[in-house]
Amino acid sequence: LADVGLSFTRIDGSMRAPDRIEAMKQFNSDAFGSPQFILCSLLAAGTGINLTRGNHTFLMDLWWNKAVEDQAMDRVHRIGQTRDVRIVKFVMDNSIEERVIKMQDAKAALGKGSMEKLSPEEMRQARISALRDLFQMNSLDSSKAS
């Protein structure tokens, strides 16, 4: 970003809490020269921060637990947000990220199934199936590699 003249700050797991707060304040400032972008790791930016100055969120690393992603997206969907918010997930075809999304969908279906009173055996089979799908790496279309 700096190479193309765009200012930014960051929040990641290596930072102390006061430094994270300062990065958030810098980003949310309307002052001339304040950062145009903030780069955040999902876990470090998942709770306790408000990024309503931003209205575009780009998720580059998906998480097994969709609630972690939802929390990170909620940093810009806060009280005080006056603009439309756009969320973009970057996912490559035939990748582990694509499998993560399928697993998230399967977990959501399991949650719905528990509300619909699936038997414990049906729930167990659904979980096993989701894990099999995730770890079946040979189905990532290895025929294209030749």
What does the largest sheet look like?
2 strands, parallel
CATH fold description of the largest domain: Rossmann fold
**Share of residues in strands:** 5-15%
Based on secondary structure, the structural category is alpha/beta
Separation, N- and C-terminal Cα atoms: 37 Å
Structural description of this entry:
With 146 residues, the chain is α/β, with parallel strands linked by helices. It folds into 2 domains: 2-89, P-loop containing nucleotide triphosphate hydrolases (Rossmann fold), CATH 3.40.50.300; 96-138. The chain has 4 helices and 4 strands. Strands 1-2 form a two-stranded parallel sheet. It has a two-stranded parallel ribbon with strand order 3-4. Helix 2 links the parallel strand 3 (56-59) and strand 4. Helix 3 packs antiparallel against helix 4 (120-135). The longest helix has 20 residues, at 96-115. Residues 1-119 form the Helicase C-terminal domain. InterPro entries: Helicase_C-like, P-loop_NTPase, SNF2/RAD54-like_C, SNF2_RAD54_helicase_TF. This is Helicase C-terminal domain-containing protein.
